[in-house]
Amino acid sequence: AGGPRKASSGAEGFGRPAAAARLGKAAQPLRSPRGGLAAGPRAPAGAAGLEPRYSPLLFRFILSPTARNLVLEGLQHLLELQRLDSEIAKRQEVLAALPARRKQSDESLAAAVAGLEAAREKLQSFELDQRSAESELQDQEALLHKLEGQQFQVKDNTAYTALLSEMEHAKEAISACETRILEEMEAIETGRRTLADAESKERDTRANVERDLVEFAERQQKLEAELTALEAERALVGPQLDAKMLAVYERVAARRRPALALVSGEVCEGCRVGIPAQNYLEIIKGERLITCENCKRILLHTDMVQSAGGSPLGSETRSETLV
């Protein structure tokens, strides 16, 4: 009754010392008559009845270590590939936005220049109106002086009355011209202040735009150099992946990013949709890649990410400001 018993096919490997220790049993390896390791004691009665979804460690003994190691190794490369793709995408996004930002700077400078030209033209218009009013004032004063000289030459009342009327109109015109001159002088003062503000704004905008253009050129050069380095690094990671695993990743990443998503409580954290129980068991086994039936992302268990040495998905932060 106490002799060794043959292990069933569904729990192969439970007789090994590592498996016995991880299952919390003190069973020791047994030697067969030929000197090899014989099958050890059966797993505890309760172990076989455990729900696999609540005992991921149990599956790590049952499945082939080689298969899981290959998946974990591939997973590590996938996580690194996704990190590189994320950094590449960030820099490509910034590079793609640089022309628009240059255009925005050019437009701001053009607006400042246009404002300056408008202020100059407005001031010139006020000055022209003032000169016109002054010229008209001189004409009306000359006319009044002429009419005043004729009043002693008139011989009848009708002509004298007409002369007085003309003189009155000339005086009114003179008063209107003087009023216009005062108004134009005030407008000119306002126009000069507006012009000074426009000149200051144009100088500041031009200096800012010139500084921005230099910064954009330096940033573009830096981003292009970083992109070259990242793409070279990515080229080294790709060949280390299994061709089928890489094809799955590329297919998913072409539609949505990130291409990998964690599983929490049998729910895909990428789309927040539940996954079938069988797929969840396959994810825990870790013998092959499982994708979400809804968003098609590659699904990973948290333990697998930690085993692969990766960082939690979605927790990456920018190491520097790119924009």
Quick tags:
323 residues; mainly alpha; five-stranded mixed sheet; two-stranded antiparallel ribbon; 8 helices; 7 strands; disordered N terminus
Quick gist of this model?
The chain is mainly alpha-helical and 323 residues long. The chain is built from 8 helices and 7 strands. The protein has helices at 17-22, 45-48, 56-62, 65-150, 157-237, 243-255, 277-285, 302-308, and strands at residues 30-31, 37-38, 260-264, 267-268, 273-274, 290-291, 298-301.
Q: What does this protein look like?
A:
By secondary structure, the chain is mostly helical. Helix content is 66%, strand content 6%. The chain has eight helices and seven strands, in the order αββαααααβββαββα. The chain has helices spanning 17-22, 45-48, 56-62, 65-150, 157-237, 243-255, 277-285, 302-308; strands spanning 30-31, 37-38, 260-264, 267-268, 273-274, 290-291, 298-301. The strands form two sheets. The protein has a five-stranded mixed beta sheet. A two-stranded antiparallel ribbon has the order 1-2. The longest helix has 86 residues, at 65-150. The protein is rod-shaped. The two termini are 74 Å apart. Residues 1-64, 308-312 and 314-321 have low confidence and may be disordered.
Uncertain stretches of 5 or more adjacent residues: 1-64, 308-312, 314-321
Provide a count of the helices. Answer: 8
- Which structural category do the helix and sheet elements fall into? mainly alpha
Number of strands: 7
Which overall shape is indicated by the principal axes computed on the Cα atoms? rod-shaped
Average pLDDT: 78
- The H-and-E topology, N to C, reads as HEEHHHHHEEEHEEH
Q: Using the CA coordinates, give the radius of gyration.
A: 45 Å
Q: What composes the largest sheet?
A: 5 strands, mixed
Distance between the termini: 74 Å
**Helix content estimate:** 55-70%
User: Biggest sheet, strands in spatial order?
Assistant: 5-4-3-7-6
Instruction: Estimate the strand proportion.
Output: 5-15%
